[in-house]
Amino acid sequence: MTPANGNSAGAKAFSRHIEYITVTVAGQLLGLAIDRVHDVFVASEITSVPLASPEIAGLLNLRGRVVTAISLRKRLHLPDPEASERRMAVGLEYHGEAYGLLVDEVGEVLKLDPEGLQPNPVHMDPRWASLSEGVYQLHDRLLIILDVESVLKFDTQLAA
Asked: Which CATH number goes with the domain that contains 69?
């Protein structure tokens, strides 16, 4: 027996998809689960933090809330970008603290089937692999899915 609208199978297939916001860092396409993302914003007026680890770009004020700005480039062991006027950030929360991941560009939201997630390639840099949940092969490029917990837990490791 089929429902009157006839699309229950399509609805089930659609609901299985996971949404990722895409960002670009040094030309590499990366994905963050959208349910972890609170904001996307232009990062301006970052205040440096003396003696902070290199990954911490500083602090910024986002609508009255202090946010720790994390350089995703530094976290991925990449060189600093060429001087640019506009730095984008993706707002996340981790253990009740607000963070802004600094990225080169923010892209689109992709809905992907979790069954398409593949393990990290064996040749992937171990430092990158430790921050990744896996990869999707898109039509023309590889999308590395970042594990938000792994990306943000470095500061607790340093404090221990």
From this structure: 2.40.50.180
- Whether 13 maps to a domain, the answer reads no
Give CA–CA dist 126/88, Å, rounded. 26
Question: Could you give the C-alpha distances from 51 to 48, 54, 159, in angstroms and in order?
Answer: 9, 9, 12
CA distances from 118 to 8, 93, 122, 136, 144 (A): 27, 26, 11, 6, 10
Q: State which residues form the domain around 70.
A: 18-159
Q: How far apart are CA 96 and CA 134, in angstroms?
A: 26
Kindly report, residue by residue over 6-53, the tens digit of the pLDDT: 444 544 445 689 999 999 999 999 999 999 999 999 998 899 999 999
